[in-house]
Amino acid sequence: MINDPLKTFVTVVEHKKFSRAAEELYLSHPDVSSHIQRLEEELGTKLINSSSNHLELTQSGEIYYRYAKQILRLHDKAEKEIMQLSNEVAGTLKVGASYTIGEYILPFVVAEFAAEYPKVEIETSIGNTQQIIQAVRDNYLDIALVEGEVHYSDIKVRQLMEDEIILVVPNQHPLARIPIVTSEHLQDQVWVLRESGSGTRAFSDRLFEEWGINVRKSYVFGSGQAVKQAVTAGLGIALVSRWIMRKELNAKELKSTRIKGKPLTRPFYLIEPENHETSEALEGFMEQLLALTSWRKLGKREIDI
């Protein structure tokens, strides 16, 4: 078993109380204190400052906690890989994603997972954010990734990454000649929008309201692919994820125009049913997913394709 004081230390930090850590680890309060004291003696530094109602990490404690989490995670991974030598993970995993993630990111995650767990059957479902959320609530999906906000108590939600939203315009559009556009430039434009229920549409609607943008006319399409084709054809302008426009921007089929101010971003979320029964396949998929949350690897692949 991995070093007990290490696990005790991480549990204390995450629960912010010695007593709660003791309950979870089935240890006495003095045992927990002894584990922390042993670590501090080995390291020759104070890790935790605590009082009767408050716990605070020292600077050394913050550093040690970061590495302790990595050690525990690697230990768990090593145990699983060793177990897989004699007992391969199998079964079926149902994974869902909203359109942007499902069409441009999920295939790479599934490919990585399939290479490591070849005996797991994977069924994928792609829809707009609200459709995928409902499928998770109905326990039809084991796990899903969405780009819109989730406000349901029966769903576990974890933020994975930040997605950049960009303004794309046809090459011949007047805005294509403006280096930096302002909210005034966006007034009374023709917009190409996603359908209601889409995370991208919710983002656009919220931005229009915040900036007081008047939409002269709009065309609504049910997928990111259709939106970018409509913009390329000159139908209007659109706010879209940079993920779906990589190839078109590289090929100069349309123009990305900078909006004044900070880059527009939104979170991508990992969601699953609150009381869903876990499995080795699901744990393996989540581990693979969390290992790729920097998405640098995925981004490079997307550009190269």
From TrEMBL:
Which keywords annotate this record?
Answer: DNA-binding, Transcription, Transcription regulation
Q: Where in this chain does the entry annotate a coiled-coil region?
A: none
The HTH lysR-type domain sits at 1-58
Organism superkingdom: Bacteria
- Keyword set includes Electron transport: no
Q: Pfam families, from UniProt?
A: HTH_1, LysR_substrate
InterPro entries the record matches = LysR_HTH_N, LysR_subst-bd, WH-like_DNA-bd_sf, WH_DNA-bd_sf
Record-level Gene Ontology MF annotations: DNA-binding transcription factor activity; transcription cis-regulatory region binding
Family as reported in the entry's similarity comment: Belongs to the LysR transcriptional regulatory family.
- Name-wise, this protein is LysR family transcriptional regulator YeiE
Its source organism is Desulfosporosinus metallidurans
